[in-house]
Please model this.
Amino acid sequence: MVQTLNDLDTNKKYTYADYLTWQFDEYVELIKGKIYPMSPAPSRWHQLMLSRLHGYIFQYFIGKECDAYLAPFDVRLLDRKKSAKANKDILTVVQPDLCVICDKSKLDDAGCIGSPDWIVEILSPGTRRKDRKEKLQLYEENGVREYWIVSPEGFSVTVYDLVDERYAIRNVFTEEDTVPVGIFPGLSVEMGLVFAE
Model:
């Protein structure tokens, strides 16, 4: 039985079935079978921005079909070429800071199985590279329709739209902008309020 993160072999490939047996308190993500320890608890500033973003989103989706979820919330992504829905076949489990899911058939008591429609990641020192590289590629491959990377240090948000199965940068917005969510007409976020100290 795996009781500490140190009991795991970082060179080995793991599945969601393995993940379910781990008995330690640290949060980890699996990306294509590789273990990625998550940063220690996010900063107060990170959580405040996340709370403000969720506030906008929560209000918009009242009475609509989609729901927003905050981390920790397991999103199990399927390799479109190899994975079935069996736990032993799932190699990727991530915990986006915020995600929106409109297809209720993807939800179960364990979280989401399949791609959310929209994902927001807020950069922190320990996740910056992963969010901009591994997760960007992963979300693109899995058909996440819109991906936002929020930079607290740069007071900016980079918005990616899925166009013909590839991400295209729509724009890099600043704290002075109101950013529309492309896949949800009528939903926009005033970044000045999100970034207000």
Observations:
- Residues 42-195 form a domain with the tt1808, chain A fold (CATH 3.90.1570.10).
